[in-house]
Amino acid sequence: MDRFNSAKKAGVLGIIGNIILLILKGAIGIITQSQAMIADATNSAGDIFASLMTLIGNKIASIPSDEDHNLGHGKAEYIYSLLISIAMIVMGLTVATDSVNALIKREEFTFSIWLVIICIITIITKLALYLYTRNIAKKYNNLLMKANCKDHRNDCIVTTLNLIAILLGSQGIYFVDGVVGIGISIWIIITGIGIFKESYDVLMDKSIDNKTKEKVYDIVKDHDIVQGMKNFHSAPVGYQYQIFFTIEVDGNLTTFESHKIANHLEKEITKKIPEIFLTVIHVDPIHINNKKK
Question: Fewest beta carbons less than 10 Å away: which of 16, 118, 212, 240?
């Protein structure tokens, strides 16, 4: 449960932090008419939605398996990550449209020291949240946390660009404000597309990655009694995978002996490879002289 409790805590911290930043950015952005700051505020609104989706998705994913969901509810992580990505793309397109209009109309903003202060507060807050969520994402391989982590990282970069635009605007170079707004929107859209693809791949039962598959093969190869391995298949179960394959063993072995080999391999693979949730092995007895390479 540490995985889900950690994600829940990160989600709550994200919501609190982003609500405060949204209020500050929105207020000063509207007062000064800074398109970059308004875009940044819109980004914070999206972050609140992302954190809410993280909480809800994490809550559902933590529900243990039952009669109706034999493999648990882990895919909820990917469903809600998908929702986060769609929201990010829509938000990015909206911000891009507003920024382009501001650039065409050559709108100027009123410089205020508060613009600089809020940017600095945002960078510090988001950097702290980024480091915190990155640690959780790496530790538990949690896609929701990966999405949140990328979001916080993007915010640090986005707000730094925003700060540069504000400082240039204080010197009368206003067009950079609109350009930064467009840059922010593009960054949001690209990140959203990346998260969407990763979530979509899992929901569409994308096969396990080659690196993890090689780990399975290496474990099997260490057992000389196994004459061959074939028909490898996999399917995602939340953040893990279930795998199925066939091993070839000497046909002279008894049914009990051959299945004992399979049972031992199933336990060993599941224990040694964290990415594997369930291993199912079929036994194919063969004539030792006709074994398949």
Answer: 16
Between the alpha carbon of residue 153 and those of residues 87, 106, 188, 247, the distances in Å are: 17, 30, 11, 45
Domains of the chain in sequence order? 2-203 (1.20.1510.10), 210-290 (3.30.70.1350)
Alpha carbons 288 and 210: distance in angstroms, whole number = 29
Residues near 163 by beta carbon (within 8 Å), at least 6 away in sequence: 116, 119, 120, 123
Stretch 253-264: mean pLDDT? 93
Q: Which token pair is 13?
A: 């911290």
Which stretch of DSSP H or E encloses residue 167? Answer: helix 143-169
77 strand-pairing partners: none
Tokens coding 84: 């986060």
Residue 145: phi and psi, rounded to 5, are: -70, -35
- pLDDT tier, 205 (very low <50, low <70, confident <90, very high otherwise): confident
- As a whole number of angstroms, the longest Cα–Cα distance in the chain is 87
pLDDT at 272 over 80: yes
Dist. CA 91–CA 189, nearest whole Å: 8
- Cα–Cα distance, 272 to 222 (Å, whole number): 13
Distance CA 78, CA 81 (A): 5
Bridge partners (DSSP) listed for residue 236: 241
pLDDT band (50, 70, 90) for residue 1: low
Phi-psi domain of 186 (left: phi exceeds 0; alpha: psi -120 through 50; beta: other): alpha
Q: Which two tokens stand for residue 44?
A: 């914070």
- For the chain, the distance separating the N- and C-terminal CA atoms, rounded to the nearest angstrom, is 43
